[in-house]
Design a protein that fits this description.
The complex is a heterotrimer. By secondary structure, chain A is mostly helical. In chain A, 76% of the residues lie in helices and 0% in strands. Chain A has a single domain, classed as MetI-like (MetI-like fold, Orthogonal Bundle), CATH 1.10.3720.10. In chain A, helix 2 packs antiparallel against helix 10. In chain A, 43% of the residues are buried. By secondary structure, chain B is mainly alpha-helical. Chain B has a domain of 158 residues: MetI-like fold (Orthogonal Bundle). Chain B has eight helices and no strands. Chain B is flat, with a radius of gyration of 21 Å. The chains are: A mainly alpha, B mainly alpha, C alpha/beta. Chains in contact: A-B, A-C, B-C.
Chain lengths: 243, 229, 254
């Protein structure tokens, strides 16, 4: 029932080669998915750390804007955010005339921008929650040592919060990987986009979709394994006693 | 006129979106409870089945599941029924969307309910059985009310993610709010406005849900002491 | 727009009152004006739905017009989600392997839509981005021809999206049915400064003899009825009436 030949024939296309179709962006298939995922996560994390600090601040002029940002980006679907950035911004003449247009006209950049903003919002909440959860004893000890506020943040609070955020963050990373599949809806040929292309060429649903499902599953397992190793190393002190 | 009169169309689409979301939630709760039961059951094959279900479903993107189920499963059903000689039932987009989302989030709910049920002290269930209550009675009167308190935070999170996932059903042709928005954006040539409106609609849905669920959490936590820092 | 539809509707109702009305589901693209478009009230309008309604009236059946994105329309037909497809689908040999086609109901060339004054020749394509509708014959032709000349293809799920990106400058040209490019873009305020450029693309190998109505392979009964109905509306003038509503020229061709 399932045509294995079709899968084998088209497999390179899924991974990142082409199946004779002209490439739509810098890369295709799995390569594109990993690029989108990797870049969004890195930028998102870089944004999230300062924003988490702002969010826990007692100064409401600093905390409120960040709260609003996470509220909006966590309360709306990623698809809507992506469409607003890709189609919505192109509507305005002043955007098209500005310097940003050179970047925003690429679907690739729009996708990374949307994914980054989205993951940054979730990561900010996760980090902020863990910062608030810091054991009071740690803060007390730091103050007793004479550490200033910024030194304490840099050396004690943030590293500790990052570690404790690992389980929740691993969830976020896995969800982000699933979310990259909507990049195909703005003309990018990521893993799911290639599957849809093969499907619309051949009218066979199982072969392409089951193949990409399998690839996503393998990647999920790889990510989960990676995070397990990370937890073993950085959360070793929370592991159950072995002896 | 605002959005050339497409606003009512978008609101109609919202109603459909809500219908899909609520129906899918019901399906996911049922699947989640069954899954949690299986996972905790002494029978190895059942536990394994539930494990595979929740792992595989959460490891593949929603969009891929939707495409697979809408096109693939319909073909399977057609073939199956053709072999049996019956007229195949047609799976319309609404049904496909609800079943897919329900199926996906059933996996997440399995984890939610499993954690919640395990958090209820075993002694409670034992006491109920000791009193001669049937297992079903024990579940309904003792386990469930206590489990709700533990399940609610994770449940509300799943619900919010579910609502946002319904945005994807437009891809399988369901005339929901995103589909209407797609049409409106081409006709009105104002994609920013259209999608900003859709964003606000979703924001409204998530905010209201959030408030309602927080109320529910408060109600089910009566009498529980909160940790004081 | 509503009056002829109402007239056709009442006609269908009157005719169907004499015979028990079966429901025929026709699928159309819904975002391909003037051939099909979804109005603010959610109803399908356009050349394709109107022809479908006319055929149903003659066939004494009730018509249900269902929207479906073009790239999933043949698989959905095969999956029995509807009975026939009337979506400006060109009759090609490759598609005939998957579905059966009725006689053609119109024949139109495809054109490139680009900035006014663009000179299109073989050298022009290098490095250009061409927007196409996913799964359409325009995509196939572009893949086999334009891409070989150095162009890059960008595939969209709905045709109007390619026009939006054309206006925004994300693609250099859109390759669509001539009428769609004309009515849905060039003639609208958005299409200012754009025009249909280049030659008529009409190679039979890719574009077939024209567009037909697709039914599932082997559904001979429905096919015969549709062909008979098609002949009738051509003969009794209802085809011309519908055609005049949307086009100022004859789209049936030879």
């Amino acid at each position: 029932m399932i045509d294995l030949n079709l899968i084998i024939e088209r497999f390179p296309a899924f991974l990142g080669g082409t199946d004779g179709a002209p490439i739509m962006s810098t890369s295709d298939g799995l390569q594109l998915t990993l690029e989108l995922l990797g870049l969004s996560l890195v930028f998102g994390l870089l944004l999230a750390v300062p924003m988490a600090l702002m969010l826990v601040s007692r100064n409401k002029w600093v905390a409120r804007p960040v709260w609003l940002y996470t509220y909006v980006f966590r309360g709306t679907p990623l698809l809507v955010q992506l469409f607003i950035i890709y189609y919505g911004l192109s509507q305005f003449d002043w955007v098209r005339d500005s310097w940003a247009w050179e970047y925003l006209r690429e679907a690739y950049v729009c996708a990374i921008l949307a994914f980054t903003l989205n993951t940054a919002a979730y990561t900010t909440e996760i980090l902020a929650g863990q910062i608030r959860n810091t054991h009071y004893g740690e803060i007390e000890a730091a103050k007793a040592m004479g550490m200033g506020k910024w030194l304490m943040m840099r050396r004690i609070v943030i590293p500790s919060a990052l570690r404790r955020a690992l389980p929740a963050y691993s969830n976020e990373v896995v969800m982000m990987m699933q979310s990259t599949s909507i990049a195909g809806l703005v003309t990018l040929a990521d893993l799911t986009g290639v599957a849809r292309r093969v499907f619309s060429d051949t009218y066979m649903p199982f072969e392409p979709f089951l193949t990409v499902a399998g690839i996503y599953l393998v990647m999920t397992f790889a990510l989960v394994w990676l995070f397990k190793k990370a937890e073993q190393r950085w959360l070793a002190y929370l592991a159950p006693r072995k002896h | 006129m605002f959005l050339q009169g497409y606003l009512p169309s978008i609101m109609e689409g919202t109603i459909l979106t809500l219908q899909v979301a609520v129906s899918a939630l019901l399906v996911s709760v049922v699947l989640g409870l069954i899954g949690a039961m299986f996972k905790m059951s002494p029978s190895k094959p059942l536990a394994w089945l539930a494990e595979v279900y929740s792992t595989v479903v959460r490891g593949v993107p929603d969009l891929v599941w939707m495409l697979l189920l809408f096109f693939g499963v319909q073909m399977l059903i057609n073939e199956l029924f053709a072999q049996l000689g019956w007229e195949a039932p047609e799976i319309n987009s609404f049904f496909a969307g609800v079943m897919t989302i329900g199926f996906i989030f059933g996996a997440y709910m399995t984890e939610t309910f499993r954690g919640a049920i395990m958090a209820v002290p075993k002694g409670q269930m034992e006491a109920g059985l000791a009193y001669g209550m049937s297992p079903l009675r024990v579940f309904l009167r003792i386990t469930f009310p206590q489990m709700v308190r533990f399940a609610l935070p994770s449940f509300s999170n799943n619900w919010l993610v579910l609502v946002k996932s319904t945005a994807l059903v437009s891809v399988i042709g369901l005339n929901d709010v995103m589909y209407r928005a797609d049409t409106a954006k081409s006709i009105t040539q104002e994609p920013f406005t259209v999608y900003a409106v859709v964003g606000c609609i979703f924001l409204a849905i998530t905010s209201v849900s959030d408030l309602a669920l927080k109320r529910l959490e408060k109600r089910y936590s009566t009498g529980v002491r909160e940790t004081e820092l | 727009m509503k009056k002829p539809l109402l007239a056709l509707g009442t006609l269908a109702l009157a005719l169907s009152a004499t015979v028990s009305a079966e429901t025929l589901r026709f699928a159309t693209d819904a975002s391909y004006p003037p051939f099909s478009k979804q109005g603010a009230d959610g109803k399908m309008t356009g050349f394709d739905p109107d022809i479908a309604q006319a055929l149903c009236a003659v066939m004494k059946a009730k018509c249900e017009i269902v929207p479906q994105d073009f790239d999933g329309i043949i698989p959905a037909l095969q999956a029995k989600k509807f009975d026939a497809v009337i979506a400006s689908m060109n009759i090609t040999e490759e598609r005939k392997k998957a579905v059966d086609f009725s006689d053609k109901y119109y024949n139109m060339a495809s054109r490139l839509v680009a900035k006014q004054g663009t000179q299109v020749n073989a050298a022009w394509f290098k490095g250009k981005k061409i927007g196409v509708l996913r799964s359409s014959i325009q995509e196939k032709y572009a893949r086999d021809t334009f891409a070989k000349q150095g162009a890059q293809l960008v595939s969209y799920g709905k045709a109007p999206e390619s026009f939006m990106d054309l206006k925004a400058g994300r693609v250099d040209a859109a390759f669509v049915d001539a009428a769609v490019g004309d009515v849905d873009f060039v003639k609208t305020p958005n299409g200012k400064g754009f025009a249909l450029v280049g030659p008529d693309y009409n190679e039979a190998k890719y574009f077939g003899v024209g567009s037909g109505i697709a039914v599932r392979k082997g559904d001979k009964a429905l096919l015969t009825r549709i062909n008979a109905a098609l002949k009738q509306i051509r003969a009794d003038g209802s085809y011309d009436k519908i055609q005049k509503k949307y086009f100022s020229f004859d789209i049936y061709g030879k």
